[in-house]
Write a structure and sequence with these properties.
The complex is a heterodimer of chains A (218) and B (292).
Chain A lengths: L14 E2 L5 E5 L6 H8 L11 E2 L2 E2 L8 H5 L2 E4 L11 H11 L4 H14 L15 H13 L5 E5 L7 H16 L3 E6 L2 H5 L5 E5 L2 E6 L4 E2 L1
Chain B lengths: L13 H39 L1 E6 L8 H12 L4 E6 L2 H12 L12 E7 L7 H11 L4 E3 L2 H43 L1 H9 L4 H39 L13 H8 L1 H22 L3
Antiparallel strand pairs in B: 1-3, 1-4, 2-3
Helix pairs in contact in B: 1-5, 1-7, 2-4, 5-9, 7-9
The chains are: A alpha/beta (218), B alpha+beta (292).
Chain lengths: 218, 292
């Protein structure tokens, strides 16, 4: 994969994620973690190679079919990407709205989730009034509100202290327990060491070292 | 009750504030051009309608005698002609009155040789054999001329059509300019909200979901601008109507609009709104097609 006519930022990447697995994607800044996630959440098309998601070859899908695939993927962006004019509730309900649900149909569900991530008292708060950690949790709630089959999180603990970071990872584990495949990109290997999940290491644009189990790479 | 909110915060954009006034100006110009074309259409039809059932016979100015014998003979010929309902010779006072718009009241010299005019109304059922009538008139009043107004009407209608085509071209140019303006403002808006649009795209929004937000806004702004433009045009047309009704120009037709013409003008804001909506939608869909 390359951006425009720039150098190749990812190459020789070959792996399969088992359904219901939990992986950490680690590596130094600039290793290509975010780029790999961008390919996985279909924000970028690779310049070559094959991507198969939910048993579908992405290259063979029509443009009209892609939104349905994207709705199966929850993404926690590194910079949160909350909509500043919407409240915490409205940000979280967004994926459901896009899928055609009306706010009043899902109000209780969304409030419950916000309570679950510790933001029960900030349902109507605008992002500008929230701390970095609170924004992060709103972004996580938005990513998981649809119970996605695949959750991709890009440095989800990057803006929170260690204690909150651990709590967020427990939250991802809870989601994983109900069947969601989870991939968490982070450079915080100390945090990763506290959890017993496979680790995929990305260095210089390629998969270099793997720790843990259940990973098939070539 | 849940408050209503928009996923895309488009309403506060500078481009969104600017669009209704541009549309208002364009609808104003389009309304004036369209009103002119439609009024002219009515005027030409009125002329044609008024002249269709009449002809005028002109008997040359009298020489040594006063010519009334020739006029009487011509009237008699006309009244005996199949297809003629009435034939009436205008007296000198009526003929002078016809000239006064050009020469001014009281400026027609009593010695000025004027042709006699016979106003003929046709019954509209029996076709008039103009050639046979002309031959009989020449025998009764040598030099008499039949004027069925056809040539004059054809020239007037031709000029009117040219003006109407010009007005139509103006309206089309205005539509094209409106499309261009909406494309520009929509692209500006897309650039301003690129991050939001990309986020919606990435979390699974169909292109139609995003395009609808832009199209809905453009529809509202187009309608608002259209109504402002139409209101301004209505004020202008009322002022022009009031001013022109005070003019003494008997040969000019009465420029008035039919109910259909009023309806066409009233639909301009709707048309501007629909053009804005469709343009915004197509612009957004094309921009989204460039996303992966």
């Amino acid at each position: 994969m390359r951006y425009g006519t720039g150098p190749e930022v990812l190459h020789d990447i070959n792996f399969t994620l088992e359904a219901g697995s939990f992986h950490f994607l680690v590596g130094p800044s600039g290793a290509g973690k975010s780029s790999l996630l961008r390919i996985m959440y279909l924000a970028h098309r690779p310049s070559r190679g094959l991507i198969s998601l939910f048993d579908r070859d992405i290259a063979m899908l029509s443009r009209a079919e892609l939104p349905a695939i994207r709705r199966k993927i929850g993404v926690v962006f590194q910079d949160f990407r909350l909509l500043d004019h919407l409240t915490a509730f409205e940000n979280v309900v967004l994926p459901l709205r896009i899928a055609g649900a009306r706010d009043e149909q899902v109000r209780d569900h969304v409030r419950e989730l916000l309570h679950w991530v510790g933001l029960g008292d900030h349902v109507d708060a605008l992002p500008a009034t929230l701390s970095g950690g609170q924004k992060q949790r709103v972004a996580i709630a938005r990513a998981v509100i649809t119970r996605p089959r695949l959750l991709l999180a890009d440095e989800p603990t990057g803006n929170v202290d260690a204690e909150v970071g651990v709590r967020l990872l427990y939250l991802f584990e809870e989601l994983n327990k109900i069947g969601t495949t989870v991939v968490i990109a982070t450079h915080n290997e100390t945090l990763v060491a506290g959890f017993d999940h496979p680790v995929v290491r990305l260095e210089h644009g390629t998969l270099g070292l793997v720790a843990g189990q259940r990973r098939r790479a070539g | 009750m849940a408050k209503s909110y928009s996923t895309l915060p488009l309403k506060g954009d500078p481009a969104s504030r600017f669009l209704p006034w541009i549309v208002a100006l364009k609808v104003y110009l389009a309304a004036l051009a369209l009103a002119g074309a439609l009024a002219l259409n009515g005027a030409v039809a009125e002329w044609q309608g008024a002249r269709a059932g009449t002809i005028t016979v002109q008997v040359p100015p009298p020489g040594a005698d006063d010519g009334t014998d020739q006029v009487d003979a011509a009237v008699a010929v006309l009244r005996a002609t199949p297809g003629v309902a009435t034939a009436r010779a205008l007296d000198r006072a009526e003929i002078v009155a016809l000239l006064e718009p050009w020469l001014g009241a009281g400026n027609v010299d009593v010695d000025l040789p004027l042709p006699w005019l016979i106003d003929v109304k046709l019954d509209g059922e029996t076709p008039l054999d103009t050639a046979a009538l002309d031959a009989r008139l020449q025998a009764a009043a040598p030099g008499a001329e039949i004027d069925d107004h056809g040539e004059w009407l054809a020239r007037v209608a031709s000029a009117a059509r040219a003006i109407q085509f010009a007005a139509l071209a103006v309206v089309l140019a205005i539509v094209a300019a409106t499309v261009g303006t909406v494309v520009f403002t929509t692209r500006t808006s897309l650039a301003l909200h690129h991050d939001t649009v990309e986020l919606l795209h990435l979390i699974g929004a169909q292109d139609d979901f995003i395009a609808r937000a832009f199209a809905r806004l453009a529809l509202g702004l187009g309608l608002k601008g259209g109504l402002i433009g139409l209101a301004l045009a209505a004020l202008t047309l009322t002022a022009v109507g009031t001013f022109s009704s005070g003019l003494e120009a008997p040969l000019l037709p009465r420029l008035s609009l039919t109910p259909t013409a009023y309806l066409a003008l009233a639909l301009l804001p709707v048309a501007s709104a629909l053009v804005a909506m469709a343009t915004a939608r197509v612009t957004v869909l094309r921009a989204l097609a460039a996303m992966p």
